[in-house]
Amino acid sequence: MASQEERAALQVIVLGSGGGPIETNTTAFLVRSVAKQWSKGSLLAVDAGVHLASISEILEKNNGSFDDKNSENELENSRNQKQPKRVLSNGPFAGMELQHESIKANAGYITGVLVGTYLITHPHLDHISGLVVNSSSLPRNQPKIIAGLPSTISALKTHIFNNIIWPNLSDENNGAGLVSYMRLVEDKSPSLFNSEDDGFVEVCEGLQVKTWSVSHGHCVEKHEKLSSTPESQSSENPRIRAGSTSSFTTSERNLRKSSFHDRLCFSESSAFLIQDVVTRTEILMFGDVEPDSISLFPRNKNVWTAAASRIVAGNLRGIFIECSYDDTRSVDGLFGHLAPRYLIEELKVLAAEVDKLRTRDRRKRKRASDCFAKYMRRKTKTESAQLSPYSSDFAEKDYYETDSKDDEFNDSDESCQSLYIPESAPTEKSNDEPQVTPLKGIKLIIIHIKEKLDDSPNVADIIHQQLLEHERQAQLGCEIIISSVGQSLYF
């Protein structure tokens, strides 16, 4: 029997599973189409809070776990002064042919040759710092692609690769040309009216992506209003006495307060539907995200509506989503993140959308079944009489066409008109059959857990238990997995 890895279409390698504050474990993944094996440009890096260091660490753990390829030709290799090719036999990079002797050189090969694109959910440091620091080692023969929403690319271009925070390594504004920006267009069309491939963009070998923007909290910024009064413009105020314990008098504090105005700003993140081009197998990967129920700009429902149709179609297999804090965290301390109670709340929205689609499909099948039953009754009557040449020809067909002039079939059932009915039309689900939980078969991978710097129990274990309890009560049916560095997940 084929193993899960052999049957799978997508592999996800977890380079970083956390959300800080420890900088060696921040959000980062590698995704590949299994059909592309380990070919050039076949790896998609989704976020890169950590990158090269984590790849090196994973390779080091599996150092020596390889098979000699073409071992039967060792004599020929020695004559040609060639080293036998080595292929990793286990670990996340199993099946990859090692190109070098040292770990750092092989890690550089993965980053420089195998990774084709960096797909960034949003430009916060815990999602990009590895990319930025590692970017100076990128090969110069072909620029690496950095893909994301226009807001993400704008932030990277303006605030990171700007020759101040970091050199401009892009191919824009006379940069060094090591990276090239790809601005993704958000999918805003109702999924029910889309064709299967609408909105997808190929981002690397064997993988294409559909993108949505989601909300990641808000902040209130205070901006000082410009004043034309000399007093407010002067840096030296004669009313400030030398040696005073306060820089401002009470009236001056009030004046200063009134000189500020509040501006509400939103933090935008992304959700990516990543699809294997060959099999249409999909995973959904979220950046940082807040619940719709407390958001000032709720946008998750659009993602769940689209995801529901992919679940019903059997394409979507896994959802990577954050759960930064446990349920003891107060609402005002979430800062645009999820806790277990809110994550389950979001999943209930997805489950409701799945149930809605499946109910609609059952009704369609029920109508088809009713129409089929009418034809079977009519067919029984006609077969009891002598068959005419017309009915003989009709009986040889493997489907039945309705006649809009047929009074029996036309009686107050317009849904049966001009309907093609198969010989074995499906019937509506029996009430005696066990009810299928809406998210059965879906792997829910929890990411971006923020560690506590104290002696309290492991927060990941607490979050896991809280999620399991919420899921048990909600009866969603999904498998909940806590991500960890070095994990290899197949879909």
Automatic annotation (TrEMBL):
It comes from the Eukaryota. Residues 66-79 have a biased composition (Basic and acidic residues). InterPro entries: Pdiesterase2, RibonucZ/Hydroxyglut_hydro. GO terms for molecular function: 3',5'-cyclic-AMP phosphodiesterase activity; 3',5'-cyclic-GMP phosphodiesterase activity. One of its GO terms (biological process) is negative regulation of glucose mediated signaling pathway. Pfam families: PDEase_II. Residues 227-250 have a biased composition (Polar residues). Residues 63-90, 223-250 are annotated as: Disordered. PANTHER family: 3',5'-CYCLIC-NUCLEOTIDE PHOSPHODIESTERASE 1 (PTHR28283). This is 3',5'-cyclic-nucleotide phosphodiesterase. It comes from Golovinomyces cichoracearum.
